Amino acid sequence: HSSVRVQSHPCPLLLLCLDTFTTMSVSVSSSNAPNSDCCPLESNGTYKKIVSVTSWTDPIESALVFLTISSFYVLINFCDYGYLYLVSNLLVTLFLFSIGNLFVQKIINVATKKPDANPYEKFQGKELQISADSVKSFAEFLIIVTNYKLNIFFKALFVEDLLFTIKSVSLLCLVGLISNLVSLLTWGYIFVVLAFIIPTVYKLKKAQIDNVLALVSKMYAQHVGRIEQQIRGVLQTVSSKVFKPKTQ
């Protein structure tokens, strides 16, 4: 509400940290993207694929990706297996499945008196290659996102906006405190889970969520705006006293 005073909020620093995190997490706009005239992020193939998978456009594909990531997280985080050990055993399992499937198909062909056929015949004799377009799309995706984040980093580092730099420092301090509670791997997995859940929930409850977000955004902007005004006032007061010209 407009009558709420900033001092009544239990943790204005937390609000500033959230505001900075929101700013740093904004989707890359075409104006900030390299070669944005020909390759904005929204038209990037890798970006489209990520959106498609996390939006469950193909439920089977999305389920396989999610289960694979979840399996690796559980095995690494709770079973203390190394990355190379997991990858090696995954490939061994894949090869054994391929051999088993070959023998099963041969047994079925014999039992049903069908001609002996290799189930992988259509893949044999072909050179499976990663297309240049796929590599280019992935590289462009990394360049766009990296450049956008670097612009934000240098904006804070070179103090283009003192308040933004202060908020960035506050956010880094908060991240440092939270990192002692949860590992980086767990934070990454939480991000993946949210990426798969949020789009689906939003589609199901779009109208209700939009109304709630509009209300929360309005109240959030009011609180953050008041805190920023107070901080800017303090900074102006301090700077005017420090750099006050000496009278003769």
How many angstroms does the end-to-end distance come to? 50 Å
Q: Count the strands?
A: 0
The H-and-E topology, N to C, reads as HHHHHHHH
Radius of gyration: 27 Å
Average of the residue pLDDT scores: 78
Q: What kind of sheet is the major sheet? A: none
Low-confidence stretches: 1-10, 26-38
Structural class: mainly alpha
Number of helices: 8
Roughly how much helix do the residues carry, as a percent range?
over 70%
Residue fraction in strands = under 5%
Shape: elongated
Question: Which terms summarize this structure?
Answer:
disordered N terminus; mainly alpha; 248 residues; 8 helices
Write the layout of secondary structure elements.
Elements: H1 12-24, H2 45-54, H3 59-79, H4 83-111, H5 132-157, H6 162-179, H7 184-204, H8 206-242
Helix pairs in contact: 1-6, 1-8, 3-7
